[in-house]
Amino acid sequence: METANEKSASLSFLSSYPTCWSTNQSTGPEICSDPGEPWLDAEIVVEGKSVVVNRSILSERSQFFHRLFNLRNDGSVSEGKPKYLLTDLVPHGKVGFEAFNDILLYLYTGMTKESPPEVSACVDDACVHVSCPPTINYAVELIYACAAFQITELVSYFQCLLLILAENAPVEDVIPILVAALHCQLNRLHSCCIQRIARSNLDNVCLEKELPDEVSSEIKSLRVKSNQESEANIKEVDPMHEKRVRRIHKALDSDDFELLNLLLNEYEVTLDDAFALHYAAAYCNPKVFKEVLNMGLADLNLKDARGRTVLHVAARRKEPAVLETLLSKGACASETTSDGRTAVAICRRMTRRKDYIEASKQGQETNKDWLCIAFLEREIRRNSMSGNLAMSADVMGDAFQMKLDYLEKKGDIYFLVLVHCLLIVFA
Q1: Is a pLDDT exceeding 50 seen at residue 19?
Q2: What pTM does this model have?
């Protein structure tokens, strides 16, 4: 059952936001479709695609664009039209083509539409797209654009939406929300994300690798304070052990296997103690990961403190070379996380519909997302076929033995001799 919060989060991002002005202009999604229209007098390049815009309307509706278009020397000129790169206009985060057009539609008309599912929903059939990574990432793109273009009413709206998502999403998916809150100076959202992560079992390695130093330090301080106040029976961390684990991770980061071997020989810490395969699968070059795996000193199916195998970590990263190496070495594709997800379910939930569909089109370069899903599904099918064959063989063997027992009881000695001869011939 979905909670009330989850139902709110599952609503389309822009489908019900109220109009903040009325307009009699026939502006809509088609407004930027024809570069030949005389009133489309500037270009903004988004993900390599040119979007033609009307400077007059945007200047009237947005102080940001008013200032931008009044800077005489800003923008290059393309066939008489000023040309701007969206990456220059939005300094933090990534804003895709679809998100930019959603915001542009709002600026032109004051109207909104449903967010396109191809970029705001994943390809996991079991997902209701309440708080999956594509849903979160699309909301993050929109808030980056709204903050950069100073559209305060939409910033407030998306901050409320992201507050709901931050409470309901898996904790690792809260990280991009926290980073966006930091860059967009959204204090309420920032505080919510910090508290959520501090309460979680997200390890310090993840915090240090994926968050700015000041943010990870703040979370660690909150955890220390919370533990002291609650006096919970929390397993104490040996500072010396943690220091040695960090050195092993640094050796992996620098691709220094000579140092890695020295550390393993000197310390009473194994690759499994340091979850070295998990670390390499998440953060290291695929070649480094393969070298660590080929050392043969780590358990391929070991689960970390959060109940994830190396394959689960690799599925989240979506690096085909790492996944293929793991599967070739015998990693179990059917193993589940503590919350019941397989590697392929993780991978599907990380993948946008747009990426999965486009990767399947003939003549296009195969997308990493599609490849990872294909590798994992192929392995599951192979295991399923092997299991079915083994089961069939067992059933046939049992039936054969029952027949022999029956014939033996009847005393059909000639048939039994024939059967034994056949078994000797084909053994």
Answers
A1: no
A2: 0.80
